[in-house]
Amino acid sequence: MGLQTQLRRAIAVYRFVALGYPVLLGALAFDALQRPVAAAALVALLIGWTAAVSYRYTRNGYEPKVVYTDLAVTAAAVALSAWALAVSDRAWPISLGPWLAGIVLVWGAAWGRRSGAVAGGVIAVFGMVFRGGINENTVNEAALLVLTGFTMGHLVRLGVEAEERTRRATERDAAARERERLARDIHDSVLQVLALVQRRGNEIGGEAAELGRLAGRQEEALRALISSEAYRHPLDGRRDLRELIGRHAGESVTVAAPATPVRLPTATAQEVAAAVASAVDNVREHCPDGTRVWLLVEDDGEAVTVSVRDDGPGIAPGRLAAAAAEGRLGVAQSIEGRVRELGGTVQVVSGPGQGTEIEMRVPRPREGDADGDAHRGR
Known about the structure:
By secondary structure, the chain is of the alpha+beta class. The protein has two domains: about 5-165, no CATH class; about 235-378, Histidine kinase-like ATPase, C-terminal domain (Heat Shock Protein 90). It is built from 14 helices and seven strands. The protein has helices at about 5-20, 20-30, 35-60, 65-85, 100-110, 115-130, 135-190, 190-205, 205-225, 230, 240-245, 265-285, 320-325, 330-340; strands spanning about 240, 255, 265, 295-300, 305-310, 345-350, 355-365. Strands 2-4-5-7-6 form a five-stranded mixed β-sheet. It has a two-stranded antiparallel ribbon with strand order 1-3. A hairpin with a 3-residue loop joins strand 4 (about 295-300) and strand 5 (about 305-310). Helix 7 (about 135-190) runs antiparallel to helix 9. The longest helix has about 55 residues, at about 135-190. The protein is rod-shaped, with a radius of gyration of 34 Å.
């Protein structure tokens, strides 16, 4: 049960309890009421409306048309109360009192502090118009209503933000535990198999030695991945892309990146890093030993571009399309698919004997997109 659901129920209970104020005052001054039948009818109407609208809020949330109608009904009730709750020995009628704050709480909870203050101001104006003009009572009531709406909206915003932070923290912890479990499983199974393949391949020699060499490279890459901070803490909000790509640096791989952090939302940074890893793996798999790879990271503020260039034999024209048709989707899915889902583009430039360059350009998400800001404009 979320915070908003609990608030809707709490406000519904408050509005019913608040109806006790005009009922009690009306009962105490019943003999002095100028129109007791009208007073009883008004109270009955308020009970019915409160029940109906509270039920609607609880089931369907704050629908705009219902919230606006609720404000109109409350304003009409203020006007009617000046006639139905008039008392013979008083200059002003019995007030609906705390019940009026119900709609103010609704507006604050539904649309924020400004809306809550506006609703309080509207009800306060009706009170001044129909209940004796501007005097100490109506001014005090106006101040209380406006402050109630403003405070309610502010507290709801803080509560929803705290709830969202708690949810994200829970997801981070769950994801971290799951990834640690997967890392253990990989270590106990996949890495052991790759190590065995590498050892036996070297012992057998020939083509088996080449398989052993490839298995050794994969083992090394997997060990680097599961031991990295980026793997153990995948959802820390934003990650430095340089940190994720820099793990490829080695004897045959050169990494060039800006001096300042290239921070992206964690999910975006991980997908870009995975695409780069796939491109590097393609070089290791399809190019001869000694092929050099250069990784270049660029950040122009609007987008982040990562280029993977090698001095290998290159790709023959039409080879990528043919590989995709054969079901070998390394470039099509591992690279292009990932980048495309991020709203980016991939450009492959290659030719026989000319090496290959894969340029991945990903637009930088807007600042609010990283945190899923659900309260923009409040």
